[in-house]
Recover the amino acids of this structure.
């Protein structure tokens, strides 16, 4: 965070010194200011998630309750994850704005992280002629990998699926919600009957159970909701690694901007 503050200070001083430049490359500065606020919010959220987690663990010991979901921890950790994913895209767009004067008001012109990196790595493939982009690639490639994939997965679930539940301690089957779904194929019905056979050896009783699982003639079965439960220590690790990677990459990219026109005068 210290390098972020230092480089932001340098960036702000240089902008004041050179003033606004009628140069499309200056668009990257506006993305830099947006990034600055987002980085601060991510760190703020992480610190509060940690504080609430520590507070909870001092009050409630592991194993003393069937569920250890904490609203405050989920709120701050969830916000961190959403902002980390957004911050990575914005950092890529800051770099892209330096090379391409796209319109942020036009949705089809807004790329995500992968789209920007793909164009920087193979500009000829996209009919582009770029110079001086290699230095930025070095920093952008720091913000990918398994930890970011897990962050993407959590955000996708949070936005498009059932809300993920963060547990302070270990997760287990007893915390899963039994979600009821119809069995509409012969394969799914047979798998259900096979499970009943393992559980109920008596064929007559098993048939009775199967009939009781029907609603208006359609058999139903419960399923666990995939990826619903997350342990805080695991999600915390992903947040911290991604946060530190983003801070380092952002500071590095800002430093590159300071070495170049129109900020270098």
């Amino acid at each position: 965070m210290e390098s972020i503050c230092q480089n932001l200070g340098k960036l702000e001083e240089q902008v004041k010194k050179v003033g606004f430049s009628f140069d499309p490359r200056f668009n990257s500065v506006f993305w830099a200011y947006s990034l600055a606020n987002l980085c601060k919010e991510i760190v703020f959220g992480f610190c509060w998630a940690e504080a609430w987690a520590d507070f909870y663990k001092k009050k409630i010991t592991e194993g003393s309750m069937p569920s250890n979901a904490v609203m405050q921890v989920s709120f701050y950790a969830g916000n961190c994850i959403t902002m980390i994913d957004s911050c990575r895209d914005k950092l890529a767009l800051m770099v892209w704005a330096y090379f391409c004067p796209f319109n942020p008001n036009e949705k089809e012109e807004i790329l995500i992280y992968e789209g920007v990196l793909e164009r920087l790595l193979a500009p000829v493939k996209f009919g582009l002629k770029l110079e001086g982009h290699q230095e930025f690639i070095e920093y952008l490639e720091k913000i990918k990998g398994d930890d970011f994939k897990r962050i993407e997965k959590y955000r996708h679930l949070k936005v498009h699926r059932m809300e993920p539940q963060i547990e302070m301690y270990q997760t287990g089957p007893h915390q899963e919600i039994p979600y009821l779904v119809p069995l509409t194929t012969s394969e799914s019905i047979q798998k259900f009957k096979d499970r009943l056979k393992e559980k109920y050896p008596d064929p007559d009783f098993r048939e009775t159970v199967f009939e009781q699982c029907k609603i208006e003639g359609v058999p139903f079965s419960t399923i666990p909701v995939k990826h619903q439960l997350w342990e805080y220590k695991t999600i915390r690790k992903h947040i911290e690694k991604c946060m530190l990677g983003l801070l380092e990459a952002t500071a590095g990219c800002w430093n590159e901007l300071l070495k170049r026109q129109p900020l270098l005068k």
In short: The longest strand covers residues 218-223.
